[in-house]
Design brief:
about 160 residues, mainly alpha, UraD-like, 2 domains, 9 helices, about 65% helix, globular
Length: about 160
């Protein structure tokens, strides 16, 4: 697989951040046969060693959960599928108002959207995590959000590639 094909296929695994796939490929970290684990390890290493500003940019590239982009239908296909799987596309007016309130407070507090790997979670699980994490300090929440971004990337890669050789 050449660089262009790799970036085309995996550039969106880290939300709107193809530089991670580009750097992993350019660093010689990508070897065939591709597995979810190997590609994730390489891309996560690039993400972890990126500057704080670059990682913040990746966090900010994520949509609010059940937010404006979801309502207007502008989520990426991956985000749309992930949010729908957790029932976030079927919120009551009251639940939607609570998500909006928490999204706004969270972004005002931390400067990036609340990020959680929603696969396997319900809307109630997500709300509970939201309400707990909003009380975290900024450094702790930055680290938690980065960990969640890596988890989302791993789940996306697992849907695209076999886990082992």
């Amino acid at each position: 697989m050449d660089r262009a094909d790799f970036v085309q296929r995996f550039g969106g695994v880290f939300e709107h951040s193809p530089f991670i796939a580009e750097r992993a490929f350019d660093a010689g970290m990508i070897e065939e046969p591709l597995t979810a684990l190997d590609v994730h390890d390489a891309m996560a290493m690039i993400f972890r060693t990126s500057s704080v500003e670059e990682r913040l940019g990746v966090l900010r590239a994520h949509p609010d959960l059940a937010g404006k982009l979801a309502i207007s239908g502008e989520l990426t296909d991956d985000s749309k599928r992930e949010q729908a799987g957790a029932g976030l596309d079927r919120l009551s007016a009251e639940e939607h108002a609570r998500f909006t309130e928490l999204n706004t407070a969270y972004v005002e507090t931390f400067g990036f959207p609340f990020i959680i790997a929603v696969k396997g979670l319900t809307k109630d699980d997500i709300l509970a995590a939201f309400e707990t994490r909003i009380a975290n300090g900024r450094d702790q929440e930055f680290d938690t959000a980065c960990h969640q971004v890596e988890k989302i990337a791993r789940l996306r890669l697992e849907s695209l590639l076999p886990e082992t050789h």
